[in-house]
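From the shared-data thread, chain only:
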Amino acid sequence: MIRFFWAEAVGTFSLVLCGTGAIILGDYSDGAINNFLTAIAFGMIVYFMITAFRRISGAHINPAVTVGFAMTHLFENKKIFAYVSGQLFGALLASVLLYVLFPKHPTLGATIPKISIAATFVTEFVLSFILMYSILWISQHRKWQQYTAMVVGIVVFLEAYFAGPFTGASMNPARSIAPAIISGQTEGLWIYIVSTMMGMLVAGILWAKRRRRFIS
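Structure, as tokens:
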């Protein structure tokens, strides 16, 4: 289990460091690093982490993805603790490092709703559902699974680009929890935990049901 823990920890550390780090640098760059470049940072780091750790842990780098996979036959539930604890550890470590580097930044890239609570919840639910279903479809399609890292990276980029200015485009509880706790900006944090978990859980359940119907 320890190799799963460390693979997920390093992967999630890299995601939070590069993704929220891009947000922080954008705030200090007078617009030189804009939403488009931040979305690219998120998409590219997801691509690289899946490429690096896919054969070790599957590179979930996201507690909600782990929950989504747990709804299928593709993941052993006994691994959940190792995965989620690794993800949270890596995310928190990245936010601590960013705090050391940028101690005066008020949010450290935390996801804070810029639209209504209901709209934020629905948006994050839909984004998470789409991401999880995309992961399941591409990773389990024999003809296309070699492109998993690229497809998932593109989906993350597109979702971060279009929804980032409104909800922060979390799709990932660890990505939201870490900067919120370290910066103290926990406003609306529950939205990003519950909506992302629900979105990916539903995606996992629906994918599993569709798969069973197809097989039968």
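Residues 2-215 form a domain with the Glycerol uptake facilitator protein fold (CATH 1.20.1080.10).
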